[in-house]
Amino acid sequence: MADAEIGVFGGSGFYSFLDNVEAVAIDTPYGVPSSKVFMGTLGGRKVAFLPRHGVDHQLPAHAINYRANLWVMKELGVNFIFGPCACGSLQPEVKIGDFVVCDQFVDRTTGRKDTFYDGPITTHVSAADPYSPVLRQLLIDGCKDLGIPVHETGTVVVIQGPRFSTRAESKWFASAGWEVINMTAYPEGFLARELAIGYANVSLITDYDVGVEGVPPVTHAEVVKTFGENNDKLRKLLFHVIPKVPTEPDPHAASALDGAH
Q1: 258 vs 92: CA distance, rounded Å
Q2: Which of 38, 155, 172, 230 would give a disulfide with 49, using CB separation of 3.0 to 4.6 Å?
Q3: What pLDDT is attached to residue 51?
Q4: Are 198 and 79 in contact (CB under 8 A)?
Q5: pLDDT over 70 for what percent of the chain?
Q6: Three-state secondary structure of 128-149
Q7: 75: nearest Cα among 2, 164, 124, 173
Q8: How much is the pLDDT for 228?
Q9: H runs (alpha helix) in 54-164
Q10: How far apart (Å, rounded) are the C-alpha atoms in residues 208 and 212?
Q11: Nearest to 85 by CA among 210, 6, 188
């Protein structure tokens, strides 16, 4: 089987900039992943890219087979995964076009297959610090190098979808002090931790959520424009940081199962 060092989940289009791309179909014990995996090289590093919503963006967030997607990365030998995602802001100071390198998540989803440990062996993996410090620092430093406005910490609250929040829900989330809202950050990041893979979320802010007070309403055209600009910045960021990813596994991830019981 083809192998890779670094994985990227995200929207389609990124892999077209990799060198020598090969599409690989991989089956898993957990069913079919979102698409074939696009294997290529970038800065001399072997990268596996998988569009989490499918090549044609046909899978809504609640219907993504997260376990299959993560299992594919494990099968390929990936030690680090970047999980960029388009998000809404819950705080006025987290502005449209900003990047947030989250250090915490809050799970508000329901019914998602969110563990590889379904029994008979019961295993509890710590989620106290869910994201890779190594990758987070690379992303923060990379944003600063490239002049991308970045928040070095943040909490992403993950909702089930496909519906957006009500104003009441959004105000509730904002009042808790959380910065970011989206539909895909969980269980993707935690499943990576169960597999001892270093994972980092980078949230690309496209708009303000409905409960944020004191900010002007955002038009659909503005969201589309920001989405395109964010993708350009993300591509530059990943091209900047991927060659700098360590060749050794992340100690924070590699030890994830040491204290599990």
Answers
A1: 40
A2: 38
A3: 93
A4: yes
A5: 95
A6: CCCCCHHHHHHHHHHHHHHCCC
A7: 2
A8: 86
A9: 66-75, 133-146
A10: 7
A11: 188
Count helices and strands in the chain by DSSP H and E runs = 6, 11
Q: Which helix (DSSP H) or strand (DSSP E) does residue 185 occupy?
A: helix 185-194
Give 28 or 213, the one with higher predicted confidence. 28
Tell which phi-psi region holds residue 155, choosing left (phi > 0), alpha (psi between -120 and 50) or beta: beta
Residue with tokens 């303000």: 208
Task: State mean pLDDT over 161-169.
Answer: 93
Regarding pTM above 0.85, the answer is yes
Determine which helix (DSSP H) or strand (DSSP E) holds 152, and give its type and residue range. none
- Please give the positions annotated as active site: 207, 209
Q: Rounded CA gap, 149 and 203, in Å?
A: 12
Residue count (the chain): 261
Helix axes 66-75, 185-194, angle to 10 degrees: 40
- Minimum mean pLDDT among 10-14, 18-22, 237-241: which range? 10-14
Q: Strand runs (DSSP E) across 43-165, as ranges?
A: 45-51, 80-89, 99-100, 104-108, 150-151, 155-159
Task: Give φ, ψ of 50 to 5 degrees.
Answer: -135, 115
Question: Average per-residue pLDDT in the chain?
Answer: 92
If pLDDT is split at 50, 70 and 90, which confidence band does 236 have?
very high
For residue 222, is pLDDT > 90? no
Q: Which residues pair with residue 23 across a beta bridge?
A: 38
Exposure of 27 in the CB half-sphere (CA atoms within 13 A): 1
Q: Specify the pLDDT at position 17.
A: 64
DSSP run (H or E) holding 37: strand 37-42
Contact by Cβ (8 Å): 88, 139: no
